[in-house]
Amino acid sequence: MALERIYADILAVRVIPNVDPDLAKQFNLKPYHRSLAIFTSTVDDIGYTALDEATKRADVEVVYAKSFYAGSGNASGPLSGEMIGIIAGPSPDEVQSGMDAVQQTAESEAYFEALNQEKTHALYAHVVSSTGSYLSAEAGIRIGEPLAYLIAPPLEAVYGLDAALKAADVKLVKFFGPPSETNFGGGLLTGSQSACQAATDAFREAILDIADKPIKY
Predict the structure, then answer these.
(1) What is the pLDDT of residue 73?
(2) Is 158:185 a contact under the CB 8 Å cutoff?
(3) What's the predicted TM-score (pTM) here?
(4) HSE on the CB side for 162, CA within 13 Å?
(5) Which of 162, 109, 173 is nearest to 138 (CA)?
(6) Does residue 96 contact residue 85 with C-beta atoms inside 8 Å?
(7) What is the dihedral sign for C-alpha 213, 186, 106, 196?
């Protein structure tokens, strides 16, 4: 069954061409990190996936990435969304190229899937075929290895992860114990690309079953 896709909106973006030294210290920037690009997104996990993509398409590193408590429905302002991401690079051109990758990923490549018509029940079941520097560091794996990035509401996440781990030769390398800042849960699984895809499919199917029969056990 094809589920309706939920894409993220990038709400605000700014580039700092030559970051002030005092601010640079707060982000532990390297000497060659002279420029920053800052953005906010309506969906945190899509934002993190987009940040990783930026590290593959431009000479940038992720220096800050945080989710906001309780999600975009409780944002502090109209441009806050659900997360903030900051990339650093040697020049404005590089961080702008990184932001181009963030925008493209959020607009067309990474998405949640709605489990109901109101889009109030959703999951994230995304395969990263080749990780960049950000997600590989988060998962403790080598750059270029595949990942299954699996996120859902709390109960669904735990049940779905179990199904994913049993469905394929994958390893849980990062567990997001529910509730996260945005009241979800999930994890990062690694293995071959085909194994990550099989785990992702099993995660989705398990959660579809919960959505269809929530109190049947």
Answers:
(1) 84
(2) yes
(3) 0.96
(4) 7
(5) 173
(6) no
(7) negative
